[in-house]
Amino acid sequence: MKRKIGLSSQILIGLVLGALVGYLFPDFGDKLKPFGDAFLRMIKMIVVPLIFSTLVMGIAGTGDFKKLGRLGGKAIIWFEFATTIALAIGLLFMNIAEPGVGVTLSASAANASNAAAASQHSVDLVDYAVHIIPTNIVDAMARQDMLQIIFFACFFGVAVAHIGGKGETIVDICQSVAEAMFKVTGYVMHFAPIGVFAMIAYTVGSYGIAMLIPLGKLILSVACATALFICVVALIASVFTGINFFHVIRALKDILFLAFSTASSEAALPGAMKRLEELGVPKTIVTFVMPTGYSFNLDGSTLYSSAGILFIAQLYGIQMPIEQQLLVMVTLMLSTKGIAGVPGAGIIVVAATAAAFNLPTEGVAILLGIDRLLDMIRTICNVCGNCMATVVVACWEKELNKATFNEKYRAFLGGKNS
């Protein structure tokens, strides 16, 4: 009997073929961009109804508001703990590796213009806090403003829970919507290998492989810092919960590879939520922690942002003393909240923070040239960090123990190998 090629293998083949086509036939690779855009648009059409329905279902379906408060409190504590580690590792690694030292600057006029435009986005905490409250939830959904959607969904979910039996119908509808969107996700994922092939071919065809050589040290530094962060957090979580989090990562490897290939947390979100439920994490916790972490626990984006700021300073020989780096940490800890899990969003935060600390905005243009690759690295960290946070909160709530996880993990491996 012939063994069918799995989705992760198909995506890997698409990734390799896309890189080859982009390198050998750059003009053709550039023309494949619409196919990649079409795939990402299909992914984006899933996210709003999925997150809204699962969040309302998670809040209203919990019923126990003391438990809901505990879930939120524990999730936030872990989010901030992981974010602090990400920022610290990013700054520490950049101070040791110093990838910005000795790099030849060659920003194009177009990229410099883009960087200057991005730098106009300043971080105003008062405006930021007020902006979370939507004036029109339909408009917020149309713009895919996840913070505003989450804010409204939380209020709506609490209201549904408080209207008693009448709210059960709404919860059932949200559950049906969520299940339908998971099914739609399955259909869309059949196009993932084609979408990945087109996006990689376009990226390599447009920017070329040669331009990555001078900045290879930065890419390697961010990749190593990300790997170190995942290992450190996995070790801490394993000690804290008694569960082997490296097994959690192994069970999520195809989801993480999809996130890496598409550079979009959105692409991996539905599959990650379903996989965590398969590993024994209760649906009420998955549907609450995962969507919340989608906006508040983007560890890869925070790590990249701290690395990007220090890289720009090194490019121009600007010394940043430790107290200023700590201030950068605090700034990024706030400004990275709410970064959408879509390609390229992190560069806005880097540009805004660079401007806030009087760093040359032209340095952001250098990052723009390789942002696609860096985005792929930070996206896999975002997804992995959110999945680990969900499992930690489940264990903290004593709703997932070591025996249950090991049993579900073995069943998952057995089902996968059969």
UniProtKB/TrEMBL annotation:
Membrane topology term: Multi-pass membrane protein
Record GO biological process: dicarboxylic acid transport
Domain of life: Bacteria
GO CC entries: plasma membrane
Subcellular compartments: Cell membrane
Signal peptide residues on this chain, from the entry's feature table: none
Keywords assigned: Cell membrane, Membrane, Symport, Transmembrane, Transmembrane helix, Transport
Transmembrane residue ranges: 7-25, 45-63, 75-97, 146-165, 186-213, 219-243, 301-318, 339-357
GO molecular function: symporter activity
Protein name: Proton/sodium-glutamate symport protein GltT
